[in-house]
Amino acid sequence: xxPKINAKLCDGCGACVEVxxxxxxxxxxxxxxxxxxDACIECRACEVACPRGAITFE
Length: 58
Ligand code: SF4
Ligand code: SF4
Fold this sequence. Notes:
- By secondary structure, the chain is α+β, with helices and mostly antiparallel strands.
- The protein has one domain: Alpha-Beta Plaits (2-Layer Sandwich), CATH 3.30.70.20.
- It contains 2 helices and 4 strands.
- The protein has helices at 15-19, 45-49, and strands spanning 4-5, 25-28, 31-34, 55-56.
- A hairpin with a 2-residue loop joins strand 2 (25-28) and strand 3 (31-34).
- It is globular, with a radius of gyration of 10 Å.
- One iron/sulfur cluster is lined by residues 2-3, 19-22, 24-25, 40-46.
């Protein structure tokens, strides 16, 4: 499963986009968004990189 992004917490810094090894994430309208869900390898690098706790997994 790809990550969940809390748009209320996300400030669009882009750290998660930069760190993702599979190009799952992109900035859209100033917020991070999942754009390639099937490619996620669940490494959780995005979750670790997010300075605002906006990324979670179920
Ligand atoms: S868990 Fe890994 S592969 Fe999936 S979106 Fe986050 S950084 Fe990318
Ligand atoms: S690292 Fe966190 S705050 Fe930065 S763009 Fe990604 S989800 Fe938003």
